[in-house]
Amino acid sequence: MERLKEVMTLREASQYLGITPDTLYKYLGEGSIPAFKLGNRWRFKKDLLDRWMERKSEATEPEKKQNPLRRSS
After folding, report:
1. Per residue in 20-55, pLDDT tens?
2. Does the global pTM surpass 0.90?
3. Rg for the chain, CA atoms, rounded
4. Residue 17: which domain range?
5. What value, to the nearest 5°, has the Cα angle with vertex 54 and ends 30 and 56?
6. Hey, what's the torsion of the CAs at 40, 15, 58, 37, to 10 degrees?
């Protein structure tokens, strides 16, 4: 399998993330996704996108439920 590029275009990043380019532009407008401009084109570093996705997935994990048999004092 071909190694994924370290720096991606907007189209490549949207495919990698599984979202539409429009959604990616929305995230860019909100400043919520790591990216930089090279000239007038947006670029995305794969390692930063991976870390961003990890933080997003950790933030949405449900809290661990307390053991219902355990009594609090």
Report:
1. 999 999 999 999 999 999 999 999 999 999 999 999
2. no
3. 18
4. 7-55
5. 40
6. -10
